[in-house]
């Protein structure tokens, strides 16, 4: 048998989720853990998405850890480089670097039902771990649609999350595919320098103005000297969003007046009625993510921009062809087509107790108990898993809720003693998901008349949390042991005395 390292906890990923997990484990007194990161630095989303104009849609004082406030945010909505710098700062402040293995991609991990641990194969060797916390990110693997002819396109092709900064866009004929959150930030950032910009839009988004401004030196000084003022600011930003979410989850019909505001926002910049018609959504606002931008519509009104209200369907040489038959010659195609969300690649790499991958177990749709644990995958949890996404607030709130759950999970295992594992009961997972889906029925995401990346191939919403962040915080405060079966194995030879002489893992009634 080859020698390998064994750790109490292995965390996958070093974005907000993985770094938050590392901080929390240390706070709980657990130092026997590693963070496995496939890239060469921390940051996750905010390392990978460096496209021009990349910024957060949630104000920075809310989109940051509650335990690591930053009084020096430069803008109300900070840009990618500031958020990335913040995560580097968190890594140093909490002395996380010794725990992180960079360039270490998890290739496969398999549950060892006898030893009650995970056997993890990485790009830089093998290790085993009692517990795995997967923080591989809900939006971390870019998705490029299969377009006939793409392979033979002679020009440049890249995805918004893998921006090629060596490629000079000045004067180029650009095709931008998609009109989601990334695309609407990219378009105004590149429009002034490109020769032409053909924008392929399958479904127009609802766009509201972005009230972004520099945070003044006086405000920053105030937050530095009187930290409770930064907390109050965060509290206010959070409270407003907690109230807003009621309209999305319970009263979608009351969102009509928000649509009027969005239409007025468009009319201010777009004077051409034909273009306005192309850009006006035919579904309820909120059904797809509401996008924030004060520069998107003005950019679309410029003479070098052509909005094609149709998807990209084919590529012939350097000609891009839309589903409606319109054509354009281009030098470069940029895909702003999102991520593998409901078909996460990491799920293909996790083999559970029954020898099935998580992807196979989720073939009819993702489902996890409290968005965190899956039946048949003992001692494994995911940070911001199924049905934890938010339409209007900060994902850091959801991540911190899951950090509470993770801390209690590890604590409960410690209390059980010996070598133990927690496997969620299928009935608990099913019950949780039934309740979530029941609540989902009347939300704007399911009733608003759109298709979106929130829905999986079966039309089920397995991504969004249909409630307030407070409700989620309450639901994940502690692990309810009644929802789990406890598995036990004999102690390792070097550990304490064997548990009742049991030779293999056994289930405790
Ligand atoms: C462009 C963009 C804008 C966004 N804007 C907002 C916003 O305004 N507000 C908001 O609340 N949320 C926003 N989000 C969502 C954002 O993803 C979350 O807020 C949060 O950053 C997720 O953190 P995470 O740690 O879970 O995942 P990530 O930040 O994606 O980190 C996952 C990490 O896991 C690593 N990894 C993945 N697979 C493996 C593997 N097999 N082995 C080893 N390492 C692996 C990745 O390299 C990555 O570093 C945005 C997302 C994107 C893409």
TrEMBL record:
PANTHER family with a match to the protein in the record: FAD_NAD(P)-BINDING DOMAIN-CONTAINING PROTEIN-RELATED, L-ORNITHINE N(5)-MONOOXYGENASE-RELATED
Biological source species: Streptomyces spinosisporus
UniProt keyword list: FAD, Flavoprotein, Oxidoreductase
Protein name: NAD(P)/FAD-dependent oxidoreductase
Record family assignment: Belongs to the FAD-binding monooxygenase family.
Gene3D superfamilies from the UniProt entry: FAD/NAD(P)-binding domain (3.50.50.60)
Coiled-coil residue spans: none
InterPro entries in alphabetical order: FAD-bind_Monooxygenase_sf, FAD/NAD-bd_sf, Flavin_mOase-like
């Amino acid at each position: 048998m080859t020698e390998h390292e064994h750790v109490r906890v292995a965390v996958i990923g070093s974005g907000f989720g993985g770094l938050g997990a590392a901080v929390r484990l240390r706070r709980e007194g657990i130092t026997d853990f590693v963070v496995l990161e496939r890239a060469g630095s921390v940051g996750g989303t905010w390392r990978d998405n460096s496209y021009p104009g990349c910024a957060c849609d949630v104000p920075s004082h809310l989109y940051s850890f509650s335990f690591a406030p930053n009084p020096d945010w430069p803008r109300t909505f900070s840009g990618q480089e500031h958020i990335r710098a913040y995560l580097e700062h968190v890594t140093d402040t909490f002395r996380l670097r010794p725990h992180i293995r960079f360039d270490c991609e998890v290739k496969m991990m398999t549950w060892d039902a006898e030893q009650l641990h995970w056997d993890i194969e990485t790009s830089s060797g093998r290790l085993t771990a009692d517990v795995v916390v997967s923080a591989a990110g809900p939006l971390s693997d870019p998705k490029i649609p299969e377009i006939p002819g793409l392979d033979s396109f002679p020009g440049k092709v890249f995805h918004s999350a893998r921006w090629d900064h060596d490629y000079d866009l000045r004067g180029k004929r650009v095709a931008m595919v998609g009109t989601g959150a990334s695309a609407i930030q990219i378009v105004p950032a590149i429009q002034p320098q490109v020769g032409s910009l053909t924008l392929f839009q399958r479904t127009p988004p609802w766009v509201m103005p972005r009230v972004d401004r520099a945070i003044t030196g006086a405000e920053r000084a105030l937050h530095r000297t009187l930290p409770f003022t930064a907390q109050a600011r965060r509290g206010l930003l959070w409270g407003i969003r907690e109230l807003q979410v009621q309209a999305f989850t319970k009263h979608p019909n009351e969102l009509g007046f928000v649509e009027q505001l969005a239409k007025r926002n468009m009319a201010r910049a777009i004077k051409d009625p034909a273009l306005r018609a192309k850009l006006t959504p035919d579904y309820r606002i909120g059904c797809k993510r509401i996008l924030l931008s004060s520069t998107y519509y003005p950019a679309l009104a410029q003479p070098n921009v052509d909005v094609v209200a149709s998807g990209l369907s084919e590529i012939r040489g350097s000609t891009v062809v839309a589903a409606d038959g319109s054509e354009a010659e281009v030098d470069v195609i940029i895909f702003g087509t999102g991520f593998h969300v409901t078909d996460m690649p990491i799920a293909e790499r996790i083999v559970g107790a029954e020898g099935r991958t998580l992807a196979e177990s989720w073939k009819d749709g993702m489902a996890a108990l409290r968005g965190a644990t899956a039946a048949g995958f003992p001692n494994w949890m995911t940070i911001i898993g199924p049905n934890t996404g938010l339409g209007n607030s900060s994902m850091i709130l959801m991540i911190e809720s899951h950090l509470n759950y993770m801390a209690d999970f590890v604590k409960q295992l410690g209390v059980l003693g010996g070598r133990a594992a927690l496997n969620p009961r299928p009935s608990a997972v099913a019950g949780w998901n039934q309740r979530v889906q029941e609540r989902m029925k009347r939300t704007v995401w399911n009733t608003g008349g759109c298709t979106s990346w929130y829905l999986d191939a079966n039309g089920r919403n397995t991504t969004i949390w249909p409630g307030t962040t407070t409700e989620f915080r309450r639901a994940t405060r502690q692990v309810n042991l009644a929802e789990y079966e406890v598995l036990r194995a004999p102690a390792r030879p070097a550990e304490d005395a064997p548990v009742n002489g049991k030779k293999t893992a056994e289930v405790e009634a």
